[in-house]
Design brief:
Blueprint: E1 4-8, H1 18-32, E2 36-39, H2 45-56, E3 60-66, H3 67-73, E4 81-85, H4 88-98, E5 101-104, H5 109-123, E6 131-134, H6 141-152, E7 164-167, H7 170-184
Parallel strand pairs: 1-2, 1-5, 2-3, 3-4, 5-6, 6-7
Helix pairs in contact: 1-2
Length: 187
């Protein structure tokens, strides 16, 4: 079953080659699984590597980018679809609309903003889509520990964690999408 996988990740490349390698691997894996890649629409940093690798693997790639970021993030010119929106709020809403699931790779404040909005919207039942953190080289270890502390202290509802997964094996995370797609009847 083909799904639309929204990937949140850095517009910067980060220090070291492991982040670019992960973005490349994610793009290839999503395309090879027959899924559509949905992402922020830029061609810089990890975003560009992700999109290029999915395109090179024959995948369908859809971007969503605010007009104000076209110059900063240099909108990717070779996507199957590129949605131009007015602002970041519209970008996140459109990404959520287009996605069947979310995969979060390492990134900065923008990535964390997107992640937490997706979690919050799921908690509020604005969507029921799965959210998966790919914990490349332990990048999300401390964040996950923080979230577990919030859960233990009663600030983060147990039900929210039912759709939130963390893992260091991309294959296992993407493999779980088949069961999710069949269970939800999404696309």
């Amino acid at each position: 079953m083909s799904l639309s996988v929204c990937v949140y990740l850095g517009a910067r490349a980060g220090q070291g080659s492991q982040w670019a390698d992960a973005a490349r691997q994610a793009g290839n894996a999503i395309a090879e699984a027959g899924h559509t890649l949905v992402y922020g629409g830029g061609q810089l940093g990890l975003m560009g590597i992700l999109a290029d690798s999915a395109l090179e693997a024959g995948g369908r790639v859809v971007g969503v980018i605010p007009q104000a970021l076209v110059d900063l993030e240099q909108a990717h010119p070779r996507l199957h679809e590129q949605h131009l929106v007015a602002n970041m709020h519209q970008r996140k809403a459109k990404l959520t609309e287009l996605a069947d699931a979310f995969l979060v790779l390492p990134g900065g404040f923008g990535t964390l903003d997107e992640l937490f909005e997706a979690i919050t919207w799921r908690q509020l039942r604005f969507h029921t889509k799965p959210i998966m953190l790919w914990n490349v080289n332990g990048y999300y270890d401390k964040l996950w520990a923080f979230l577990q502390d919030g859960r233990t202290l009663g600030f983060m509802p147990e039900a929210t964690f039912e759709g939130l997964t963390i893992g260091d094996d991309l294959g296992e995370l993407l493999h779980s999408l088949a069961a999710i797609g069949n269970a939800t009847g999404e696309r």
